[in-house]
Amino acid sequence: MESSQQQDQKQPSSIGQAIKQQVLKAWQPVPTINSTIILFAILSVYFLSMGIVLNVYSGEINQQSFRYDAYCQGYPVCEFPIALDTDYKAPIYFYYQLDNFYQNQRRYITSKSVEQLSGQQGLGVGDLSTCYPVITNGQMGKNLSINATPLSSNDPAIPCGLIAQSYFNDTFNITYEVNDEVTNVTVSNEGIAWPTDLGLYANTNISQQWLNVTDERFIVWMRVAAMPNFRKLWGIINQDLQQGRYTIVIENNYNSSAYGGKKFIVFSTTNQFGGKNEFLSVAYICVGVASSLVTIAFCLKKYFSRVDHKKL
Amino acid sequence: MFWSKRPDFFNQPRQFEGNFKGERTQEELEQYPSNFIKTSRYNIVTFLPKSLLLQFTRYANIYFLCIAIIQCIPVLSTLNPFSAIAPLVFVLGLSMGREGWEDYGRHVSDNEVNATECVIMKSRQMKVSTWAELAVGDFVLVKQDESFPADLIVLGSAIQSGACYIETSSLDGEKNLKPKSAILESQQLYGDKNNYTDKKIRVEAQVPTQNLYELDASLFLSIENDEKLRKFQLTAKQLLLRGAFLRNTEWVIGLVVYTGQDTKIMRNADASRIKSSEIERIMNILILGILVIQISLSIITASFSSAWLHQNGSESWYLGYNDFSPNLLSFYSFFSYILLYNTMIPISLIVSLEFVKVFQAYFIEQDEEMYVQSRDKYAKVQTTTINEELGQIEYIFSDKTGTLTCNQMEFKYCIIGNTLYGQEQQQTNNIPVQNLDPKRPQSAKVHPTSEVFQHSVFNFQDMELSAILKGEGSQGEQPVNLIIQSSDGKQQIQIQKQRNLIDEYFFLLSSAHECIIQYDKNQNASYQGPSPDEITLVDAAARMGFQFTGASASEQNFKILGREKKVKLLKSFEFDSTRKRMSVIIDDNGVIKLFIKGADNIIKGRLSPNQIFLNQIVNYLDDFSKVGLRCLLMGIRILSNEEYREFDNAYNNLPDNDKRAEEVEKLTNNLEQNLTLIGASAVEDKLQQLVPETIADLLRANIKVWMLTGDKLETAENIAKSCRLIQGDFTVMRLSESSVEECKKKIGDIQETYDHCIKENRKKSFVVEGQSLQFVIDNEDLAQAFVSMAKDCESVVCCRVTPKQKADVVRLIKDRLNKITLAIGDGANDVNMIQAAHIGVGLYGNEGMRAVQSSDFALGEFRCLWRLLLVHGHWNYIRIAEMVLYFFYKNMIFTVPQFFFSYFCAFSGQSFFDDWYITFYNLIFTALPLIMRGTFDQDINYRQHVQYEEKEDVASVQKKFEEYLKYKFPTLYYVGQSKSIFTIPNYMLWAFTGLVHGMIIYFFILWILDYEIVEDNGFPGGLAAFSLTVYSSIILIADLKIAIHTKYWTWFNFVCITFLSILLYIIYVIISQFWPGTLMEYTPFTMVGTPHFWLSMILIGGIIGGLEAIIAQLQREFFTDPASEMLFKVNTFGLNQNKFIELKEKNQKQFKDSFWEPLYKQYQQQNEEVIKFSQSQHAE
């Protein structure tokens, strides 16, 4: 509008000037049907191929879970028979699964003492307020330490807090019979916690502790689960397991029926992508398929509109 | 003054005596406000409590504080108290720091002002004192070029007549001198500063008002040695204003009447305006709505919590509920959830908006295209809170004089007797005025000129007239034979020849005025006067050889054609907007003449019968008003000595009371009758640069432009035509009736015409005159009818309107239609209107700074409106509107996972995210990309090329293309005008999108990570891992979404999204690995190494990106929006520049069926339009 001879603008030379005059060089992308088609073509190729890869990998993973709380109801020690459908290759990861257990409950999640767990000495009851409501041995309900020295009920519990108190204490002994000979499967509890977590835990004084806090199973327990149904690694079986029947001798200490929960054991192998994950692969394939459909739809749309255009 | 209440006794009319000795008791001092001025609000002790208190008058801060308090109660809060207190302290600290800094500035300036020295007269002795020590009743001596320390009544002046001149630029910005004067009697008593009277003097004055030009007071003097005091009514003419400067006068003695906060300048100072835009208003309502949702969600969650606890609490032994009270716990959890859902409330939105608006204001102020060289002014933003409303204007109310026109007058024609002079001069409308350009060398100027802006331009040339004035040629000898007699026949003059008539005419011009002559440093004389018209006429007379060289109270000096001449000035009656005329009575060698000049209708009604020039002059005037010239008529009346004496007696014996002004008016009215018409003048009011083009574009942007002017109907309509407010194809409807009944009838007729126009879809313009307008404003029915028609007229012209009416018209539209209005003007008479409109724009004019001071935006010229509205306004609206929407969105996607998580954590009030992650989400990770987008985004930039290509033909096409874009640009204005972005449905859509995206993120990641082993060595995830993955996905989606909506990618945007959002986040993730005691401690490194983390982010990105792309594509298929169409052309243009040149060179036929065809046609159309337009301009 404004005639240029009247106001011959200075060409903004410096960047500062360009910013002030709002004429910075810029990229102004305008999506067109072509760019949309290309985008969706890429999406469909990526998601389809990724989905198929995930699906194949996931299919190779063996995983089985067995609920045992109902079977073992009422028995302090119970022999739980299971049957593995296929052969499992080492390493086999052995998990327990709790349902309806709210590890992510606010009261629960905060009830621990980071200082105490890291091995800090001399923490009195007053320093452990974060462990509320379970601070002393009396509240914890423990009177013997690991090495069987008696514990004063007014001394602080080591470890204190709800999380430690509710530490999962069922134990599993996997056995199988070959030619009537019962063989134990060794379940290692080493390397089951996040390596970074190991450094966070140290014992204070074994004779005052009711639990060894450097036990990896404890460390795994302390990393609270996201959901009320969760699995935690109990051990690693470093040998192949054949398809067939196994008996698991369970020390059934943990009371899940009180809160209406369930207990499971889970065998699983892994691959580069982690554990068995049907959902992920299905989701990838679905997105891939949907993207291909969209690509095709837009291609058709483009084709027909071009034909229309030519006719006109 | 801000905090303390003004004592009641200050608000009483005051009576005090002049304090001759200059001593007073404490009691007397406390009777009136002290002259010590305190504009600062705090001192060191009060700063902290007071400014804190001020901060908490903002609702947002109160809310913020409540949240922080809740967060500090451990039972309620799961979050770290610092994570809420830190931002609160930050925001408060920032605002308080600014407040403190500003107040420091006020302290400094207060101290400076209060310590300024002034001279108090104590028993005729000069005593140097400070402004702060002055009190009511003191005698003050002010010397030339000093400023007045308080509002004074002038008692005596160094000038014998009692006159003095003041410059009030610090009050109203007006540079021209204002004449003030002591009343005659007090001048006699106080005219000698060394020996003035010590007699009693008393003043009665009313409560101080804001009005600068009002003084309601009387002075009691004891005259002629008797103790009785005589009363004299005072007017604003005796009032010297604090802050104004004394000029052209050696000294004055004044009596302090108003001090400190009572002075006019202080009374005018505290006009603070806080405007908030409509978007902000709606936004605040939405925030309140969200608050309600937040509270109800918290209530819902809390009741679920109660239910869960009742059902499961005691059974879940691992929770250790021995001291169990589910109701209390769920009551706590209500507050916990208030805290957790707090992320929904976009608290930092307010801060972010402020940032963006400051940047936008900076851009406006830096814009070269809004730089006006002649005044050396960039645009100035005085209210930053309403930037985006510039993009939503539907009505512009514009003043005419000084806004559309230059307020620079050119003496074009004069009619003397029956002869028209001035036809030979060249067309000057398009030649830049030399005086305007300070950078040009001052070319040789024959006539005295000063560096200041000249109100008048003189290009008048007439050979015949010059010849006559030189005494050459025969035309001057033409007989006229005009005899002018006094009413009683005792005195008469005879004008025989044209030459004599011309002499009389120019003598009238140089005598009948209120101008004063002013000399600059180089002794160059220039005229100063109350209106540019007047200066132009005096200046013109001077250049024709009738030079006014000065005046005293009773004498006028001239240099006429080289000879000195003196006449006695008997009386002078000022021009004002109701009188519309100005007259002087002089004694010219024994002949008493009344010279009068005034508006044509006024003078015409006062002529004696049988005017010999009237017909011819009226004919010319009709022609003049058609081309938009301002015309004045000149008349003479001869008074016999008896007649004058009679008048003088009557005048002097008028009672000294408040009716005096009325009486004077009556007397002069009687005197200014029986005039003899001798001529007329036509002055051109020059249009400002690019006014017609700007108005045409504003109309194309569907903005209705209203012109409000004091001019008469014909002149106004003609100016409207010349600035394209009324274009050739417009139907013009006129309303100019003198009674309500007629008005009603006429409106009925107009309604028919109007309906007709609507039917035929014709453009229309409404012209309405002041008187009719008043009927319309006062009468509800008429108002309704008028508004219903006028609102759809492309343009409306209101003529003969007063400043108050201007504001009334604005309110008429603003209140009835609820549309965004803008008022633009340059003078004090536009202030009402500027304050009434949503957006007030003031122009740096010649009429002072009042308009600028009361405006929201100040511009150098009208043409800057183009850029301000169509570009800045348009962009700002889009930026702000989309920013607000996006803000709600990003808070939504952040809160939704928290909400759903509560279902999975037994409604226990557990936070899903780490505390500091929550704090930093709005504060850091998502802040800068949004602010950058809000600062830089543009839909179309019509200046595509920072540098044109070197190849000439390519460059020319590039330029052409830019011109084309610029031409199309106004058509995009509808975006803001129709409020198409920030709407409630759009808000719902964005919020819903946020909900869906939040759910996609939460549930997909839940399903991926639930139970699942996240690594090949078998580790399961856990809460921290889940939370981190969701949070990272949210950051990804928030950035993706803003990237999708960024239309203008500068490297700033790239940097902000990649470095200042994503990179910062990555750095923080690394930090949080080692942040002891937090949820995230020792999680990130492991998690980042797992494939599931990346696989879920890619999946989420793919799904949401894909959805957005589909929606965008469908939108493009079904709703084409002009901006992206243009953008498409821009992009194609970039690719095809060279091809286009090729094609253009070959043949126009090539354009058929190609993309360029419509473009080319538009080029042609545009060119044709430009050609047509320039032709029409030429014709005028």
UniProtKB/TrEMBL annotation, chain A:
<dbReference type="GO" id="GO:0005794">
    <property type="term" value="C:Golgi apparatus"/>
</dbReference>
<feature type="transmembrane region" description="Helical">
    <location>
        <begin position="37"/>
        <end position="57"/>
    </location>
</feature>
<comment type="similarity">
    <text>Belongs to the CDC50/LEM3 family.</text>
</comment>
<dbReference type="InterPro" id="IPR005045">
    <property type="entry name" value="CDC50/LEM3_fam"/>
</dbReference>
<keyword id="KW-1133">Transmembrane helix</keyword>
<dbReference type="Pfam" id="PF03381">
    <property type="entry name" value="CDC50"/>
</dbReference>
<keyword id="KW-0812">Transmembrane</keyword>
<dbReference type="GO" id="GO:0005886">
    <property type="term" value="C:plasma membrane"/>
</dbReference>
<dbReference type="GO" id="GO:0005783">
    <property type="term" value="C:endoplasmic reticulum"/>
</dbReference>
<feature type="transmembrane region" description="Helical">
    <location>
        <begin position="279"/>
        <end position="300"/>
    </location>
</feature>
<keyword id="KW-0472">Membrane</keyword>
<protein>
    <recommendedName>
        <fullName>Cell cycle control protein</fullName>
    </recommendedName>
</protein>
Automatic annotation (TrEMBL), chain B:
<dbReference type="GO" id="GO:0000287">
    <property type="term" value="F:magnesium ion binding"/>
</dbReference>
<feature type="binding site">
    <location>
        <position position="630"/>
    </location>
    <ligand>
        <name>ATP</name>
    </ligand>
</feature>
<keyword id="KW-0739">Sodium transport</keyword>
<dbReference type="GO" id="GO:0140326">
    <property type="term" value="F:ATPase-coupled intramembrane lipid transporter activity"/>
</dbReference>
<feature type="binding site">
    <location>
        <position position="401"/>
    </location>
    <ligand>
        <name>Mg(2+)</name>
    </ligand>
</feature>
<feature type="binding site">
    <location>
        <position position="826"/>
    </location>
    <ligand>
        <name>Mg(2+)</name>
    </ligand>
</feature>
<dbReference type="InterPro" id="IPR006539">
    <property type="entry name" value="P-type_ATPase_IV"/>
</dbReference>
<keyword id="KW-1278">Translocase</keyword>
<feature type="transmembrane region" description="Helical">
    <location>
        <begin position="1050"/>
        <end position="1071"/>
    </location>
</feature>
<dbReference type="InterPro" id="IPR044492">
    <property type="entry name" value="P_typ_ATPase_HD_dom"/>
</dbReference>
<feature type="binding site">
    <location>
        <position position="830"/>
    </location>
    <ligand>
        <name>ATP</name>
    </ligand>
</feature>
<feature type="binding site">
    <location>
        <position position="711"/>
    </location>
    <ligand>
        <name>ATP</name>
    </ligand>
</feature>
<dbReference type="GO" id="GO:0016887">
    <property type="term" value="F:ATP hydrolysis activity"/>
</dbReference>
<dbReference type="GO" id="GO:0005886">
    <property type="term" value="C:plasma membrane"/>
</dbReference>
<dbReference type="GO" id="GO:0045332">
    <property type="term" value="P:phospholipid translocation"/>
</dbReference>
<feature type="transmembrane region" description="Helical">
    <location>
        <begin position="1021"/>
        <end position="1038"/>
    </location>
</feature>
<feature type="transmembrane region" description="Helical">
    <location>
        <begin position="1091"/>
        <end position="1111"/>
    </location>
</feature>
<feature type="domain" description="P-type ATPase A">
    <location>
        <begin position="120"/>
        <end position="198"/>
    </location>
</feature>
<dbReference type="InterPro" id="IPR032630">
    <property type="entry name" value="P_typ_ATPase_c"/>
</dbReference>
<feature type="binding site">
    <location>
        <position position="575"/>
    </location>
    <ligand>
        <name>ATP</name>
    </ligand>
</feature>
<feature type="binding site">
    <location>
        <position position="829"/>
    </location>
    <ligand>
        <name>ATP</name>
    </ligand>
</feature>
<dbReference type="Pfam" id="PF16209">
    <property type="entry name" value="PhoLip_ATPase_N"/>
</dbReference>
